[in-house]
Specification:
CATH architecture of the largest domain: 3-Layer(aba) Sandwich
Oligomer: single chain
CATH class of the largest domain: Alpha Beta
Structural class: alpha/beta
CATH topology of the largest domain: Rossmann fold
Strand content: 15-25%
Number of domains: 2
CATH superfamily of the largest domain: Vaccinia Virus protein VP39
Shape: elongated
Strand order of the largest sheet: 5-4-3-6-7-9-8
Bound molecules: glutamine
Amino acid sequence: MSLNLVQAWQSARKRLEAAGLQGPVIDARLLVEAAADATRADIVTDPHRPLTSEQEAKLNDYLSRREHREPVSHILGRKGFWKIMLNVTPDVLTPRPDTETVVEWVLRDFPEHAPWSVLDLGVGSGAILLSILAERPAAKGLGVDVSEEALAVARDNAAHLGLAGRMALLRGDWTEGLADANFDLVVSNPPYIASDVIETLEPEVRDHEPRIALEGGPDGLTHYRHLAPEILRVLKPGGRFAVEIGYDQKEAVEALFRKAGAVDVQTLRDLGDRDRVVAGAKNPLETLSRLAS
Ligand code: GLN
């Protein structure tokens, strides 16, 4: 007996629920849509469409992978972020809604039609940088990553979004080799999870996501210690930055940026009302004070 779309959704949900997974309704819908080659609207407007036996087999395979805690983003090879769809592989951090806080802040303050420049440190899939470039047609971006595999994913995403012409990619260790005072904006979602916390994470993250994109050293702050002065170095005077942080890292990361000379340092909260992004600026008078000293 073949299942129709709505029956497939219901039975997928029950299976994921029985496996004790969080968010079984949405996961079930996404997996049914992909397996049955259906859109979200099809499930509502054409609920009785039967699945072919190949589609049912595919759905079974997806569900058993999900039961083994493989993330939906890896099963489907993609994930929506802000207003774009991104290809995702196990070589990049799966884009998370928390990170949209960075994009929202940038879009509030950076003009639509001016030709400013943005640097994304640890660009990964390109989620932050490509979301910004998609909304700011005169902006140009550079994405840096230490992982060649991650850069390949970002390159692919830039191409299918039609943004490759405004985005350059560079393999490198953070800001190494970049000139001083070159960018109007620097964004980053660096690895910030303390090493001994990694083992306590959900299996989807702990066993499937790249550790290099998660682990921030003994206290989680190793990369901010390096990045704070370096971000201030590569920003133009008056340029701004926004970096994602762990929910309990506000005080420490704000202090690191203030110590590096940043002004207007503040922390933004995510949709779950947790501290999520430290933002600030490079003193616009920096060049003048340097000339005077
Ligand atoms: N927010 C991610 C998580 O909790 C971590 C991202 C990061 O380290 N930059 O899984």
